[in-house]
Design goal:
N-(1-d-carboxylethyl)-l-norvaline Dehydrogenase, domain 2; 284 residues; eight-stranded mixed sheet; 13% strand; 11 helices; 2 domains; alpha/beta; 8 strands; Rossmann fold
């Protein structure tokens, strides 16, 4: 696939569920990609995700060959300075913990070229809570992707009051160049547009479950039947990943019971959702 991306080299920090998809989507559209994770074990797991997502995407899109070839075009490294040393754009997709993200961005800010643009894929944190840690807040914003990025191809672009508008324009152009539908937000909003709509649904489903009102299967079937939606909330949880759901719930005192439920019944048993083959449902 050809590209008119304003960024020629993109670094993705974190090869988890979404980080791997972001790296894959970017590489499939002809942009040079470097992917970073903390050690060789994490990189090996990330390589497996890249290959699995490439197979899934190739079976669903017209130009499947570009996705099949994309994992081989991505350079993996566990050296952060090496990862960002020549990057035009850095996209961070590390776990949803504010202090971790701030620490990562402080180190990236010290190592990346002065002209590099920084973007977080955080699903719930505001860019203004992270921006100063980068050392260059005017070049920092949020760029948020949805799961199954090749098909559910939204890219929400959300700056903070100090973001340079020219930087946001370039990130919007990049999103379009890699096959996304850019969604420009005019002010900061926890959860952007997508999660502002989605999280209340998922929270309501969680409350029904922990109260013992109905099973995940019944709740999902009710939602699908009544709305025509292809997936119910617990199917969505499995795709998003239960570790991400736990991280978000742990940061909200109102969701403490849900965080505890996820940990006891799923995370402690190695059930992380689609990525591990089992969550609320079992997957091949």
């Amino acid at each position: 696939m050809s590209t008119t991306s304003p960024f020629k080299t993109v670094t993705v920090l974190g090869l988890g569920v979404l980080g791997a998809q972001i790296a894959l989507q970017t590489a499939a559209h002809g942009v040079e990609v470097v992917a970073y994770d903390v050690d060789e074990a994490a990189l090996e797991a990330g390589r497996g995700r890249l290959e699995a997502f490439a197979r899934a995407a190739a079976s669903e899109v017209a130009d499947g060959d570009a996705y099949r070839a994309a994992p081989g075009r991505i350079r993996l490294t566990a050296d952060l300075a090496d990862a960002v040393g020549a990057a035009d754009l850095v996209i961070e997709a590390v776990p949803e913990q504010l202090e971790l993200k701030r620490d990562v961005w402080a180190r990236v800010g010290d190592a990346a070229p002065e002209a590099t643009v920084f973007a977080t894929n955080s699903s719930s944190l505001l860019p203004s809570a992270i921006a100063d840690a980068t050392g260059r807040p005017d070049r920092f914003l949020a760029l948020h992707f949805a799961n199954r990025i090749w098909a559910q191809n939204t890219a929400e672009i959300m700056g903070h009051p100090g973001t340079d508008s020219e930087v946001a324009d370039r990130v919007e152009a990049f999103a379009g160049a890699i096959g996304m539908v850019p969604i420009r937000l005019h002010r900061e909003q926890p959860g952007y547009v997508l999660n502002s709509l989605l999280i209340p649904l998922l929270s309501a489903a969680a409350e029904l479950l922990i109260k013992g009102v109905a099973t995940p299967e019944t709740i999902d079937a009710t939602w699908r039947t009544a709305t025509g939606a292809p997936s119910g909330p617990f199917q969505i949880y499995d795709v998003v990943g239960l570790r991400t759901a736990y991280a978000i719930a742990s940061a909200d005192p109102r969701a403490a019971a849900w965080a505890a439920y996820l940990k006891e019944h799923y995370l402690d048993k190695g059930k992380f959702g689609v990525e591990s083959g089992e969550g609320f449902y079992t997957y091949r």
